[in-house]
């Protein structure tokens, strides 16, 4: 059975789900930490700016515009050791700069003492607060946030590295767990494949463990045990029924034969002979049904198989059917490759080739031809130039009791059913093609394309 791809496999989806959960969890944790760091940084900036702004406002109240301009100049002259930048702007009521290092008033409302981040024309980002000092003056104090931005960058890098590591570990752990689970499920599937191939005694290992897969293996084995019991019971009933039916029929045939020996009535003799023929037909029908059932039951069973020279079998059949073909006025041709060996039951391989040849001879009219071909593989072809088989009937002819019109002689329509059962027992396929004209029956290994 082909293995499903990653997205169709349950274990592949479990592995990908574990990977997705780990990535989403890492991302969620990063967003939470980022929010906390941003909020704390904003709060620290707010306290620093508010403290400086309150001090400058007191200076304005006590010393006026001139004193405030001097103190702003002093602050701008100081270089901060932490590398952060400071911005100040004292402006009149119309927004014209009176002091400070900002050229124009940013979009911060002093009337409500607004505090916010703003982007400056030179590309810097400033957190500032503005306040109204009086009807003719307003003051703004701002700080950069280089340390906070650097911290967020380091956090992003750290979480990216950690997330990649967690994702890799999750992927490895998920893959190992999925591979172990796939292996355990695989042995159950292999057991079903073995049973489907005819090894009814196959059982799933691992039923003694204590998890769900062990329970699945135990239920599988219990089902197979019951199936094996039913198959054995059916086989026993079939064998017993066939024996019980065949025995009285043979006794009846013997009594009819004795009756025929003790009478000279021609009409009675014809009736008794006809009865004997019908009895033998019923016995052959029983034998054929039993052969089909037993062959299907032995599918995949290596017992009774040996290395067989198919070329020898085909040559013997060619000699036999060649003589029959001359009597019927049918051309018979054989193309048999030498030394074709195959591990098989010799009697069954003889039976399958003879059944196909019998079928061909039934439908080929006098003057027609039949071909038997054997090539390595093995590949067995029986072809005729008779009326052929309609496309809609090419599978139906392998069903039991199916006989198409135009057959020469009698029969129960079981020959092709038995032939396919024998082919499947040997891991071979049997199908029919259009020979244009006629039909071509082909036997070849199941995994080989036509």
Descriptive account of the structure:
- The chain has 450 residues and is α+β, with helices and mostly antiparallel strands.
- It folds into 3 domains: 141 residues, Beta-Lactamase (2-Layer Sandwich), CATH 3.30.450; 86 residues, Signal transduction histidine kinase, dimerisation/phosphotransfer (DHp) domain (Helix Hairpins), CATH 1.10.287; 140 residues, Heat Shock Protein 90 (2-Layer Sandwich).
- The protein is built from 7 helices and 12 strands.
- It has a 5-stranded antiparallel β-sheet. Strands 7-9-10-12-11 form a 5-stranded mixed β-sheet, with helices on one face. A two-stranded antiparallel sheet has the order 6-8.
- Strand 11 and strand 12 form a beta hairpin.
- The longest helix has 68 residues.
- It is rod-shaped.
